[in-house]
Amino acid sequence: MAQTPSIAPQPAPATAVATLPELFRGFAKIGLLGFGGVGPIARHVIVREQRWLSEKDYATLLGIGKVLPGANTVNVAVMLGDRYQGIKGSAVAVAGLLVLPILVLIVLAILYQFLDQNPYFNAALQGSACAAAGMVIGTG
């Protein structure tokens, strides 16, 4: 029986060497787009877009990250940054992963302080809470 070729394009072998700005931008993208879980977007950016690691190397690094204490993707950022740029690379990768989402949260907190007394805003929050509760109940 003949095997059919894979439809999905395979990424090129890992060949890229990450610079400090590339590490920051790559992990910033992961941090900003990974809403609700960064695993799939992290794999996409690291393996397919940037080609910093092969699928096998990424799986190995992620496996190590899972057994270490802390968040898996933060552990991957530390190890990948260290691999390419040493301790500076680790710091830059973690900063890229965490700084921009934290800034977004700060901006949202400031907006919340201004909108807290607005009845339309409070009604929207109550509606969102009801919708979230319904989703939790609906998914079991």
**In whole angstroms, how far apart are the ends?**
43 Å
The residue-averaged pLDDT reads: 89
Oligomer: single chain
Question: How many extended strands?
Answer: 0
Derived from helix and strand composition plus strand pairing, the structural class reads: mainly alpha
Output the helix-strand order.
HHHHH
> Which radius of gyration do the C-alpha atoms yield?
20 Å
- Main beta sheet, described? none
State the helical fraction. Answer: over 70%
State the low-pLDDT regions, or none. Answer: none
Shape: elongated
Indicate the proportion of strand residues. Answer: under 5%
* Distinct helical segment count: 5
How would you characterize the overall build of this protein?
The chain crosses the membrane at residues 91-114. With 140 residues, this protein is mostly helical. It contains five helices and no strands. The termini are far apart. It has helices at 20-33, 39-49, 55-67, 72-115, 119-138. The mean pLDDT is 89. The chain has a domain at 20-101. Helix 1 (20-33) packs across helix 4.
Comma- or semicolon-separated keywords:
140 residues; mainly alpha; 73% helix; 0% strand
Short summary:
The chain is mainly α and 140 residues long. The protein has helices at 20-33, 39-49, 55-67, 72-115, 119-138. The termini are far apart.
Q: How does the SSE layout of this entry go?
A:
Blueprint: H1 20-33, H2 39-49, H3 55-67, H4 72-115, H5 119-138
Keywords: Cell membrane, Membrane, Transmembrane, Transmembrane helix
Protein name: Chromate transporter
GO molecular function: chromate transmembrane transporter activity
